[in-house]
């Protein structure tokens, strides 16, 4: 059979094409190739002829070199060898069409480099004819060069971004191929040299350019010069009429026979004359008098996208006999432009036009989608698209109109179509249009009688109508019955009386073979009553059609008896010739028109007004005497060592052993022990001395060198600067200081003190509280003082007039708490004391309260008199002294007074400068900075109300810069940042704000708060922390919704689950929710925060369709005392708990929560919701029509189930519940019976079963040939044997029990007989 069939290649090709285009055609073809050897090669050729991806081709490589990673896609782990290419090259010869999408992750990009380096032949797809390439990057575009072979005929490029290498790529394409079809789509402009690059492609038959710059005059000239071009596609969206006209500027019309007719310049005086061609064209175009010759004379198919006015202007220049015209217009169109376009089509293309298709642009369809999903969609009626302007299209065979908004037609429009298009075969008038409940379709079933009567070739009809019963006149008229109408698609049509509709339809179309209507339950717009009505019409129609045809056949078969009569007739032809002459003379009228332009000469005298002004520019000189005599101050400074004479009593105490002896005693000692027996006792002492010396030389001395270097560095570091890099108003002269107030270390470091002083001084101290007199004498740091002061100083050193030594016991003072410490000669300090003395100020050295009390009134009066700078100078001078003395209260008062005076003077620039200056002072106290920030924050509200946003923003930025990086100011910084974030959010809500500005401001507000990690702030209260985190979550969710809406507006709905749109913000909001301590929210005083938190968590969970999480959140809301006390709020929360726990997919947690609420007595108060939960808890079937009729009227009015998606989810949960119930009661069931129980189709039943099996909710297997579903898993041999063993034990137990009972009965009978 098959060899005979394949003797005719055309028949075999048509058969295989029909199979592969049918549903599941590729699967059927693959099975056919594996089943029949004779059909293997032809079916494989058809299967591999068109590939939608490179994945099947890459999969032909052996498995041992494949890299099957999830991302970025299928790839090669290593380079293939020669044997690995055999299958790829064999199947590559069958490929005729292939497509590649760079954004698809199915194939790894690394594959292309491996193929390019290791391919054994130049072209792995040698017979490729069509290449579709959709890329976003220049690298992705370059990969297509692997498939450019000489046999390539069609190239379709879709480029997402601007690629600089596009010109070089086009040169490469033109050098390797000679195309017959070329399509280029890009949101960026065409290269400037595009026409020069592709000029060699002169065999193009199809051309599609959808990119800015496609309407340039150079492109038009090049396209018109293509000799074989018969199909053209252009995008006119957003272009002006001038730009559309410019497409034809450089095209030489077909009527121009000489160069002078195509150009206004003869060429003789080209160098001297001015070319007015462009000016003349622009003037004629504006006045509408520009007439163009015929262009694109061989064009047969044209597709235009854009506004109706632009399309009409473009079609005015086309004079070819178009056979196919496809228009993608903005809906709804302007009625005047639509009328002009319709009249133009009928005038220009009525003789040859066979197909006319009118559809809407993507922007119009998205606008209609937004309008349809809004709440006010039902109040917006559809628009009428009049068809009366299509007056004459006698050759038209196919007319399709598919618009989203202009969907309203009348019976009169059908009569116009029937009159204008008598040969039409296919008519489609928005068959998928939907109408609201208040306004239905105006077309009626009786209205199509005009089509069936006038259009004798009408075969396909698709429209939305109101199937009302027909009138007696229509039912009795036989001429309205069509013998050609075979297929009718009624879409969302309304049917009230199926029987009368069937009667009328069988009369109008007795040969109708296919009746289609909208019956998909899961899609919006589905009306069950209409679907069931049309189902009845479809069931009854064949029977009534049979009756109609049988009646008409019998009526036509009756013989009509006619009376006949014989009669002779004279059939002689009589000819009469009459000669008449007519004098014909044309009437000639000569008329001359003299036209002369009116010339007007006008002279305009322009004389500028001159004005002479003399300005005295003599500089004013003022002589002023300035006394520049420098102030010279002489002061003597006495520098000398402190000398102290004292006698030292070296007599050792009785309890002290002294090692000091005279020379004579020592000599006597050696003489005393100088015998030979004393040598062994002296040797250990000598060895110990040598060891000590070696330790000092090799260990102690190297360690002392770094300490000497450290002392040297410290002394040099604190030496005064010679160049005056940091000028100061302080007096650095070393004044005579009385010994009752010893000089501080800071004062000492500000003067020329020998570097070795500190080391010498500190190393001479006895750190047990004593000081040696000879060490005190070596101190080199002294001050000039009087003799009395020296005496007083000497007395403080512990020296008596009698020259006796006084031992002074003192405790070491605590100098670690202050930055400045007093150098006391009585008590020196070590290096570690010196290092710790430069730490943070913690001890006050002096109280400046009297000075501050005297200065504040004075500066207040100065600032009130307008001398603010002078007042600030005085405050800053005293502030420096109090700051160096670590007087925190006085420094705080001075800093706050300075800021307050700037604020009262309304000098906000000075206020910001003073705040920055005071906060950055060296050694500034933390309490001062904190007090300044808190004081400035109290003025923010008043400044914003009084001075506006500009001054307020300056102060806010100043406070943020001051508080940046300071842990002790983290709480004030967070509060100021919150105010700034609310300000940016307010800007995003302005009515005049643009979409980009709204997104930018909201992004700024969210980023400002997200940068604050308030959960780590120890100085902030827990409630305030929680408020900040909730505010972060709220702004993140608002920004995420805005980004999701923007992505949906661009038609990227598939990117919702990807990291794109607002998905990043949703993740951050979820992370922020984990920072909130839910235990803290349980307190009664935090109920407002608790409700706000769970409201945000519910929004986040609904975004992820996590219904069980939503139910848990509502349960926490219901458990709040304020909600429980309010009956209405408690009821609402309880209802939402029921809704979402029912909508959640079945698992252990969902089942536990469902049963928990079922036994809760609170739920019994809500009878309807209790019954709904009971239906899901009870192991019984729930028929969806019953659920829909009982609970549907109430649930569809709730905010939850008013959404179609959630209503469909409820339907899915009911189906899943029913399948679980069936699996518990049935081990095997027929698929037809299961579909009846579930009220689904077979395909829907299989899909639901597969989903439950994958989620491991049930175990099931489907035997498709037998149509049986099995819910019992196949048991292993061990399970069977275990069950058999258990059953046998039970059986033996019963036998033994029975045997014992029989024995007992027999024993009883024997006793009775005895």
Structure overview:
With 1314 residues, the chain is an alpha/beta fold. The chain is 48% helix and 7% strand. It contains 52 helices and 22 strands. A 15-stranded parallel beta sheet has the order 1-4-5-6-7-8-9-10-11-12-13-14-15-17-19. Strands 20-22-21 form a 3-stranded antiparallel beta sheet. Helix 8 links the parallel strand 5 (130-135) and strand 6. Helix 37 (970-988) packs antiparallel against helix 38 (995-1010) and helix 39 packs antiparallel against helix 40 (1063-1074).
Tell me the quaternary state: single chain
Radius of gyration: 52 Å
* Secondary structure tally, helices: 52
pLDDT average, as an integer?
Answer: 75
Please report the distance between the alpha carbons of the first and last residues. 92 Å
Measured as a percent range, the helix fraction is: 40-55%
The count of β-strands is: 22
What structural class do the secondary elements suggest? alpha/beta
* Biggest pleated sheet: 15 strands, parallel
Strand content: 5-15%
Low-confidence stretches: 254-277, 288-293, 375-379, 580-584, 632-642, 650-681, 717-839, 1052-1059
- Gross geometry: extended
What structural keywords apply?
15-stranded parallel β-sheet, alpha/beta, 1314 residues, 48% helix, 52 helices
Protein topology:
Elements lengths: L1 H4 L3 H13 L3 H11 L4 H8 L2 E2 L3 H4 L7 E3 L5 E3 L9 H7 L4 E5 L8 H9 L11 E6 L2 H5 L11 E6 L6 H11 L4 E5 L8 H4 L8 E5 L6 H8 L6 E5 L5 H6 L12 H4 L14 H11 L13 E6 L1 H9 L7 E6 L5 H15 L5 E6 L1 H12 L24 E5 L8 H10 L5 E4 L19 H6 L5 E4 L2 E2 L4 H5 L10 E3 L4 E2 L2 H11 L5 E3 L11 H30 L105 H10 L6 H39 L27 H5 L6 H8 L9 H5 L9 H10 L34 H6 L12 H16 L3 H17 L3 H17 L3 H12 L6 H12 L2 H8 L1 H15 L6 H19 L6 H16 L11 H28 L13 H12 L3 H4 L5 H17 L3 H12 L2 H5 L1 H17 L4 H11 L8 H11 L6 H12 L8 H22 L2 E3 H8 L3 H13 L6 E3 L4 E3 L6 H37 L1
Parallel strand pairs: 1-4, 4-5, 5-6, 6-7, 7-8, 8-9, 9-10, 10-11, 11-12, 12-13, 13-14, 14-15, 15-17, 16-18, 17-19
Antiparallel strand pairs: 2-3, 20-22, 21-22
């Amino acid at each position: 059979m098959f060899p005979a069939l394949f003797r005719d290649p055309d028949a075999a090709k048509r058969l295989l094409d029909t199979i592969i285009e049918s549903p599941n055609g590729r699967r059927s073809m693959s099975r056919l190739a594996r089943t029949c050897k004779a059909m293997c090669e032809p079916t494989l050729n058809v299967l591999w002829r068109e590939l939608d991806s490179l994945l099947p081709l890459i999969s032909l490589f052996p498995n041992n070199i494949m890299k099957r990673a999830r991302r970025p896609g299928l790839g090669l782990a290593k380079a293939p060898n020669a044997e690995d290419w055999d299958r790829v090259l064999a199947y590559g010869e069958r490929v005729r069409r292939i497509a590649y999408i760079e954004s698809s992750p199915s194939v790894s990009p690394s594959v292309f480099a491996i193929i390019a380096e290791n391919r054994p032949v130049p072209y792995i797809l040698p017979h490729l004819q069509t290449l579709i390439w959709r890329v976003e990057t220049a690298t992705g575009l370059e990969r297509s060069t692997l498939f450019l072979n000489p046999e390539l005929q069609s190239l379709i490029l879709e480029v997402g971004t601007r690629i600089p290498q596009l010109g070089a790529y086009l040169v490469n394409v033109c050098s390797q191929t000679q195309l017959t079809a070329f399509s280029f789509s890009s949101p960026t402009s065409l290269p400037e040299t595009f026409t020069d690059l592709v000029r060699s492609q002169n065999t193009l038959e199809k051309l599609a350019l959808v990119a800015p710059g496609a309407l340039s005059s150079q492109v038009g000239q090049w396209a018109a010069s293509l000799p074989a071009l018969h199909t053209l596609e252009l995008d006119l969206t957003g272009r002006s009429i001038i730009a559309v006209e410019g497409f034809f500027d450089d095209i030489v019309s077909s009527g121009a026979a000489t160069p002078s007719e195509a150009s206004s310049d003869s060429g003789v005086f080209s160098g001297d004359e001015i070319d007015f061609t462009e000016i003349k064209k622009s003037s004629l175009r504006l006045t509408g008098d520009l007439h163009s010759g015929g262009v694109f004379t061989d064009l047969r198919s044209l597709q235009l996208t854009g506004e109706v006015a632009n399309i009409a202007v473009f079609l005015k220049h086309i004079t070819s006999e178009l056979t196919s015209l496809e228009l993608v217009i903005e809906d709804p169109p302007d009625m005047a432009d639509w009328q002009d376009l319709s009249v133009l089509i009928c005038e220009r293309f009525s003789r040859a036009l066979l197909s006319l298709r009118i559809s809407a642009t993507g922007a119009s369809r998205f606008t209609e989608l937004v309008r349809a999903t809004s709440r006010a969609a039902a109040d917006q009626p559809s628009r009428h698209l009049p068809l009366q302007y299509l007056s004459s299209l006698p050759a038209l065979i196919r007319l399709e109109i598919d618009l989203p908004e202009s969907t309203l037609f009348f019976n009169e429009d059908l009569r116009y179509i029937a009159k204008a298009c008598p040969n039409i075969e296919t008519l489609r008038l928005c068959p998928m249009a939907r109408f609201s409940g208040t306004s239905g379709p105006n077309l009626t079933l009786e209205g199509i009688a005009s089509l069936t009567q006038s259009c004798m070739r009408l075969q396909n009809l698709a429209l939305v109508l109101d199937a009302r019963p027909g009138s007696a006149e229509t039912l009795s008229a036989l001429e309205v019955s069509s013998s050609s109408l075979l297929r009718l698609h009624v879409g969302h049509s309304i049917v009230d009386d199926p029987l009368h509709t069937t009667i009328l339809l069988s009369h109008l179309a007795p040969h109708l073979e296919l009746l289609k209507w909208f019956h998909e339950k899961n899609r919006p717009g589905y009306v069950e009553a209409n679907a069931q009505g049309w189902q009845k019409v479809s069931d009854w129609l064949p029977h009534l059609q049979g009756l109609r045809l049988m009646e008409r056949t019998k009526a036509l078969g009756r013989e009509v008896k006619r009376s006949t009569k014989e009669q002779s007739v004279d059939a002689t032809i009589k000819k009469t010739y009459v000669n008449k002459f007519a004098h014909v003379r044309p009437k000639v009228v000569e008329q001359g028109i003299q036209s002369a332009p009116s010339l007007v000469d006008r002279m305009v005298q322009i004389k500028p007004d001159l004005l002479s002004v003399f300005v005295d520019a003599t500089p004013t000189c003022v002589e002023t005497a300035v006394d520049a005599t420098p102030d010279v101050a002489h002061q003597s400074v006495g520098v000398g060592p402190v000398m102290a004479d004292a006698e030292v009593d070296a007599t050792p105490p009785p309890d002290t052993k002294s090692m000091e002896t005279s020379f004579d005693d020592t000599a006597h000692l050696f003489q005393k022990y100088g015998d030979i027996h004393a040598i062994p006792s002296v040797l250990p002492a000598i060895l110990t001395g040598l060891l000590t010396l070696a330790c000092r030389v090799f260990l102690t001395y190297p360690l002392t060198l770094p300490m000497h270097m450290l002392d040297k560095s410290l002394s040099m570091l604190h030496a005064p600067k010679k160049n005056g890099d940091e000028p100061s108003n302080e007096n650095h002269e070393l004044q005579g200081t009385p010994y009752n107030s010893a000089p501080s270390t800071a004062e000492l470091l500000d003067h020329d003190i020998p570097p070795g002083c500190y080391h010498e001084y500190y190393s001479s101290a006895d750190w047990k509280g004593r000081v040696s007199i000879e060490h005190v004498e070596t101190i080199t740091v002294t001050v000039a003082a009087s003799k009395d002061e020296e005496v007083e100083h000497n007395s403080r050193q512990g020296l008596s007039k009698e020259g006796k030594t006084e031992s002074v016991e003192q405790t070491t003072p605590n100098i670690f708490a202050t930055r400045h410490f007093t150098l006391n000669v009585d008590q020196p300090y070590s290096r570690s004391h010196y290092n710790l003395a430069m730490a943070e100020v913690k001890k006050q050295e002096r109280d400046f309260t009297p000075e501050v009390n005297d200065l504040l009134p004075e500066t207040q009066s100065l600032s009130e008199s307008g001398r603010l700078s002078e007042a600030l100078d005085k405050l800053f001078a005293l502030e420096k002294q109090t700051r160096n003395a670590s007087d925190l209260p006085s420094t705080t008062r001075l800093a706050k007074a300075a800021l307050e005076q700037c604020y009262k003077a309304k000098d906000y620039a000075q206020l910001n400068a003073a705040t920055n200056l005071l906060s950055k002072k060296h050694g500034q106290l933390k309490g001062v900075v904190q007090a300044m920030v808190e004081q400035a924050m109290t003025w923010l509200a008043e400044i914003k109300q009084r001075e506006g946003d500009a001054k307020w923003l300056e102060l806010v930025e100043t406070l943020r810069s001051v508080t940046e990086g300071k842990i002790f100011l983290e709480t004030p910084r967070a509060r100021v940042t919150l105010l700034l974030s609310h300000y940016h959010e307010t800007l995003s809500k302005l009515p005049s704000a643009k979409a980009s500005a709204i997104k930018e401001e909201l992004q700024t507000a969210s980023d400002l708060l997200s940068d604050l990690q308030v959960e780590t702030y120890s100085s902030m209260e827990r409630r305030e922390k929680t408020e900040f985190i909730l505010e972060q979550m709220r702004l993140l969710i608002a920004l995420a919704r805005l980004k999701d809406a923007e992505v949906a507006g661009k038609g990227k709905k598939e990117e919702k689950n990807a990291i794109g749109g607002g998905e990043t913000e949703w993740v951050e909001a979820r992370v922020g929710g984990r920072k909130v301590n839910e235990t803290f929210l349980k307190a009664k005083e935090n109920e407002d925060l608790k409700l706000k938190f769970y409201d945000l968590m519910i929004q986040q969970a609904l975004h992820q369709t996590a219904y069980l999480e939503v139910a848990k959140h509502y349960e926490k809301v219901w458990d709040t005392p304020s909600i429980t006390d309010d009956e209405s709020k408690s009821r609402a929360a309880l209802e939402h708990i029921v809704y979402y726990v029912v909508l959640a997919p079945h698992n252990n947690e969902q089942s536990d929560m469902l049963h928990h609420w079922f036994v809760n007595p609170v739920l019994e108060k809500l009878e309807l919701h209790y019954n709904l939960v009971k239906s899901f808890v009870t192991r019984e079937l729930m028929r969806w029509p019953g659920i829909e009729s009982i609970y549907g009227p109430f649930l569809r009015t709730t905010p939850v189930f008013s959404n179609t998606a959630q209503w469909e989810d409820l339907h899915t949960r009911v189906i899943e519940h029913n399948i679980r119930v069936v699996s518990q009661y049935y081990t095997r069931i027929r698929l037809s019976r299961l579909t009846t129980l579930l009220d689904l189709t077979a395909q829907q039943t299989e899909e639901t079963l597969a989903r439950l099996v994958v989620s491991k909710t049930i175990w099931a297997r489907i035997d498709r040939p037998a149509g049986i579903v099995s819910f019992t898993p196949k048991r292993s041999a061990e399970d069977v044997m275990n069950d058999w063993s258990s059953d046998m034990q039970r059986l033996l137990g019963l036998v033994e029990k029975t045997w014992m009972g029989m024995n007992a009965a027999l024993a009883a009978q024997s006793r009775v007989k005895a």
